[in-house]
Amino acid sequence: MGPVMALGVPATLIGVATGVYLWFPCSGTGCVEPTLFSGLLLLLAAPTSLISGLPWLLTPLTIGIAAGSSLVMWLVLGRWAGRRATEDVDATWRSFWVEMLWMTGGVWAGVIGGLGAMYLWLTMA
Which residues form the domain of 63? Predict the structure, then answer.
């Protein structure tokens, strides 16, 4: 059940991003902040989208690559967290989510680091 439960993380992020984008009252340039926040949440839900070139190459192929590789990544992380949690004799869902939280934090730190590196690269040119 670990891989399936791990899909709750990106599903929650996508749901929150959709809610912020659709239901946040804004008009004109005031819509920049909720749109950027929604975009960040989507990047955290699909962390491999930066590698596939999604911000610049918006084609069905890159969207499919980003979605498919992110799905596989979340399933692998869920499987790995499940294996680590069940190494203990009294494995609980709490121990699974602790393992999953550490792995998710590492992935998100990589996404934030990648965004920071892109910012530095684009501002130095």
Answer: 2-124
- How far apart are alpha carbons 90 and 87 in whole angstroms? 9
Break the chain down into helix, strand, coil percent, rounded to 5. 80, 0, 20
DSSP helix/strand/coil, 8: helix
Angle value at C-alpha 75, between 70 and 80, nearest 5 degrees:
125
Rounded alpha-carbon distances, angstroms, from residue 75 to 54, 66, 81, 117: 21, 14, 10, 27
Quick one: pLDDT band at residue 75, thresholds 50, 70, 90? very high
Number of domains observed in the structure of the chain? 1
Angle at 38 (CA atoms; ends 36, 42), nearest 5 degrees: 115
Whole-prediction pTM: 0.87
Residue type, 35: T
CB within 8 Å of 20: residues ≥ 6 apart: 34, 37, 38, 41
